[in-house]
Write a structure and sequence with these properties.
CATH superfamily: Winged helix-like DNA-binding domain superfamily/Winged helix DNA-binding domain
Helix content: 55-70%
Structural class: mainly alpha
Number of helices: 4
Pfam families: HTH_45
CATH architecture: Orthogonal Bundle
InterPro entries: ArnR1-like_HTH, WH-like_DNA-bd_sf, WH_DNA-bd_sf
Organism: Ignicoccus pacificus DSM 13166
Protein name: ArnR1-like winged helix-turn-helix domain-containing protein
Mean pLDDT: 95
CATH topology: Arc Repressor Mutant, subunit A
Number of strands: 2
Low-confidence stretches: none
CATH class: Mainly Alpha
Length: about 80
């Protein structure tokens, strides 16, 4: 089961890879506290294997498993 925030992060990454700061801005996390909460959400998604961080370029991307979940989210929203 995914939380609402986790779904928002997956949707944001669906458009392409994002740097952490870009991801925070896209999801409206402006204060340090909001960004800390978002980091926890991102950590949970990484632990579940839905997103991964590319080390040298410092980008978050969806994995294959994340893409499948995204398809399910889109079907459920219709």
């Amino acid at each position: 089961m995914l939380s609402r925030k986790e779904v928002e992060v997956i949707k944001a990454l669906a458009e392409g890879p994002l740097k952490p700061k870009e991801l925070y801005a896209k999801l409206g996390a402006h204060t340090e506290g909001q960004q800390a909460n978002l980091r926890k959400v991102i950590k949970r998604l990484r632990d579940k294997g839905l997103i991964m961080k590319i080390p040298k370029s410092n980008l978050y991307v969806l994995t294959g498993k994340g893409m499948r979940i995204l398809e399910c989210i889109r079907i459920l929203e219709e």
